[in-house]
Amino acid sequence: MVATNPETIGAESARNWRDWWSLNQRKVVPYLFITPTLAIFLVFVLFPIAYSAVISFFKWNGISEPEFSGLKNYLRLLEDPIFWTSLQNTVNFTLGVVPLSMAFGLLAALGLNRPQLPGRAVLRAIYFLPFVISAVATATTAGWIFGDTFGVLNKMLVELGLKKVQWLTNRHTAMMTVVIVTIWVRLGFCMLIYLAGLQSIPPDLVEAARVDGASRWQQFRHITFPLLKPTTFLLIVLNIIYSFEVFDLVFVLTNGGPGYATTVLTVFIYNSAFQTQRVGYASAIGIVFMAIIMTITLIQWRISNEGGRIS
Fold it and tell me: Which H or E element spans position 90?
């Protein structure tokens, strides 16, 4: 029988570990880097989604024992007029915000991309500031501007001899006001992305077109805008997703009112879960909402791939 020395066994184990690490370091290190992010994703994203999917099959107020109800929440959702109104409001909000914010962002980027413009850095920061500060702070500031009684804009209208406008309490103007505030916030983001795209365009192309006698509009139409196609598509995808997920601006400004004039899907989900305490029903809406977002993303991804193959 051979006697074993603990020190020899320890040294052999350490040597084997070093040999294994030297052989597998490149394979293991990437997983070590992504482990914290993966853990956060599992705990704060994947688990809540899975939990909501399970709760969507229950009748639950968030306090008492959940009661299994099968597909009743989903069937109720299909017959709920408020859900369809919220979905329509979300689509209208997206159709109003996405094209206008991108158009104004492109105009701002074109103006701020001129080398001879004084104070370009300060102007870029001013445009981008509403996007980086808290959305609650932005919405509160917008409330001071568009307030019905003490709003700055209404005081200016009164000084000019005009009537006050119920910007946030009239069902015909509330959504328009929310769209205007969102465009104000989103403009700086679109400007920044377009500015990066403009600065990646080779200046030799624009200079050659200028030498050939092309006007500024012709340069923009035939050179600048076609080369901004990938940037434009990226902004379309991001803006549609951001618009469907809007919550804080609408919640602070109108809380979905007046009536249901500005109730988007995210506000409807929040109200269903925390005001009427229909957690199971709100979870069902959230699952359907996630399916809508995924469908839109897949369609855009498919269009992007087909566009890439065509080009």
Answer: helix 81-112
